[in-house]
Amino acid sequence: HLATSLPLPSERDHLRPRIDLIAFMIDIKSKYSLKNVEASLAHVDASFFLGKVCFLVTGVGRVNYCSVEMNAIWKLGEVYCSPVLFCELELEGIRVATAQRLVRMLQICAGHIPGVSALCFGSLMRNSADD
Amino acid sequence: MESADGVARTLPSIGRLSRGPPFGRAHGRFGLSPSGRLLPPAPRSQENADPQKTAFLLRKQWTLYSVTPLYRFSNAHLRDYARLLSAFIAAEKQKGLAVEVGVELAIKVAVSSLPDLKGSDQDQAAILVQLSSRSPASPKNSEEKLIWSGWFCCVSGDDLSENVAEDFTCLPLFLANGAECYTSIVGSWFQKTFDCCFRRLAISPLNLSWMAAMWTGCKVDKTTSAMELVFSVPCLPQPLDISYAIHPEDAKALWDTVQKTPGEITQEEVDVFMDCLYSHFHRHFKIHLSATKLVKVSTAIASAHCDGIIKFLQSQYLTGVLMLLTELAISQIQ
User: Fold this and answer.
1) In CATH, A18-130 is 3.40.1190.10
2) Helix, coil or strand: residue B176
3) Chain A residues with CB inside 8 Å of B328's CB?
4) What share of chain B is helix, strand, coil (3-state, %, to 5)?
5) CB-based contact (8 Å) between A37 and chain B?
6) Domain boundaries along the sequence of chain A
7) Considering only CB atoms, which chain B residues are within 8 Å of A33?
8) Is the Cβ of B245 closer than 8 Å to some Cβ of chain A?
9) Tens digits of per-residue pLDDT, B146-184?
10) What is the pTM for the complete model shown?
11) Predicted-complex ipTM score
């Protein structure tokens, strides 16, 4: 399900299936997208931040178009204990690889992979932050 | 060291380019910007720097390039370099890469040094290359017309010069004004002779917004032109540019309320400043400028375009602007 911002409209709540993963997309060329994501984060229930949220940063192929400061994005990942993925949607190879990664993460979050749960993402994050 | 608390304010020695642990995970590829910068010192009274000498640099459009360190370049051989470059240009013209159709122009090359354009004593003095043409019709009353100028400079480039070996000269910033064909001829001569590499220096919207904030805060004597920001709107069938002009005093008043520590600027202050301007615009026009791309910034000090084009307007702040551009050039090289 694709939405431009949160909260999702309440009319269709009863028809909506369970949400297993929320991927917030930030376009590095648009500061507006970062502000939008920051505002939407406030509407997410705290239980999602145990591995069911990730940040997807797009447009990283072109450094010279960068309008968003990288520190702000890293800080967001740290504060919300969620992984930050980078991709460039204009390149098909990277687009496909990123989609595969997200699908894999989704499978884990939905509980389809035995032995691995969404909570593992959180512990992986902590290890890399302490180096 | 956490980036959360306005790092640059407490540790001025880290100053401009922070390349230590906090940025360890973010690579230079991702438009890395420091969380704080030191402002260039207020323009010193012109005891050593003669504004006349650098006046010719003002009000011209310069295209920016970053240059890797030059191998075995020596200030003592400038005349020889001029001679060699002039021979090279003549040879290129012979080869048929004629730059001007029809009129045969004799091109004279002058290479000189501009010792005033440096930030610290460790910096190399700037090197100026000028191409002038003399019409062969009247060789005696040589009205030499300047057809192309280019200059290499380095202002406070300690980060780079500290790390290079002995034989290398660090002049990371190159500015060119004139026909592109001459730029490529001169550039290829330098690349062949000194084993260096030229690359166009583009300025990202993030860095342009830094420039807008830094230059707004500068004191200028006379009444000045408006501060102008130009934005390009993406993803439209026809390109749309938005030009946002702000009265310079209003902009300065806004910046003065935002900036806390004189002499230093942090990323947060730049963000707050730009957000105020964007929300003002949104209130009137219902357009989110933060979703567009900032392509050009013009203030009374200088004007900069994201394609890497700069125009200096005030000689007293020339070194300050060059310091910022040198920093950008160095980060493109590394």
Assistant:
1) no
2) strand
3) none
4) 35, 25, 40
5) no
6) 18-130
7) 291
8) no
9) 899 999 999 887 777 788 888 888 899 999 999 998 999
10) 0.82
11) 0.81
